[in-house]
């Protein structure tokens, strides 16, 4: 009954947190809003408090001393001859206990404490994985918003072209075929705009799903997608690798293996069992005290296997740590090179290519209106300008994604497109 009550309370709490998160994320949201909502109610994080509570229970058990035992025995009774009844019976009452030697109890507690440290490290890794996924999906929404603005611009250009062509065709300066092509281009632009809207809706749903909402209540995200910034030097990134939770988890696991070695070493020293009691001899009608001590022999050699296992496990953790560190460093170097290229491309497009193509487009439009350029020249100039805008969005999005991946691998704080 009590367990069922706790389950109901936990379910009610989760539903309340989910409802609050969904109600708070309306209108325009920031990356911080999305991160906080995800960390508050993501289902994968709900198991950690329960696992921590389970280990806390194990720690209580590990900290228990061996229990006292009481024993009663009856001897030399209900036999044959002189022992056919209780005439010569001996009754003994004893109290016994085990004295743990070698620090076994603190060693057991130490192992559970280190398992709690490993659990904390696992939670930090999962939280960071969830946050970097939030950043990815946030960038997807920001990119989709930018693509819609671009498609709206493309639709406006197509509409202006149709308006520009109509009087020219009426005056006989341009063939009807060009108006038909312009109307077809306008229809394609409108289709592309609707497709961009559908992509934005899909991206919003995927982002809201990070805080378990299937119907996003927010309208858009607040980001500076096209502000890619500068490339950070790679040396500080590599120097921060030890702070990466993926590496810290090996440190926590190494401390766990150290604790297991201490526990295994403590088992080399045998425990001592003592007993004390009283014995009544009915035949003599007398009572005496009993004392006893026992301990196993050759306990040191019996525990050597556990010690070897614990030490081998510790060395294996270090090998895995070095392997992971090498893989992460190589991945950071590769991603950093891609980041340099994406930022360079975005900067060139934003500062040089797009302003130049915008001027070209205006010049071609003016020249076309007086008959100096063809319709093909006009749509080519417009398409080149739109393609450059799209390339800027793609490279800026890639730059933010790459930066998020690098920050995730290096253990730095995730920033995303602010």
Explain briefly what this protein structure is.
The protein has 418 residues and is of the alpha+beta class.
* Arithmetic mean of pLDDT: 85
Oligomeric organization of the protein chains: single chain
Q: Work out the helicity level.
A: 55-70%
Biggest sheet strand line-up: 2-3-5-6
Sheet having the most strands? 4 strands, antiparallel
How would you describe this protein?
By secondary structure, the protein is an alpha+beta fold. It is built from ten helices and six strands. Helix 7 (245-266) packs antiparallel against helix 9.
Key phrases:
single chain, 418 residues, alpha+beta, two-stranded parallel sheet, 10 helices, 6 strands, elongated, disordered N terminus
List the helices and strands and how they pair.
Blueprint: H1 2-24, E1 27-29, H2 31-41, H3 47-62, E2 69-75, E3 90-99, H4 104-170, H5 176-208, E4 218-221, H6 234-239, H7 245-266, E5 272-281, E6 286-294, H8 299-302, H9 304-369, H10 375-410
Parallel strand pairs: 1-4
Antiparallel strand pairs: 2-3, 3-5, 5-6
Helix pairs in contact: 2-4, 3-4, 4-5, 4-7, 4-10, 7-9, 9-10
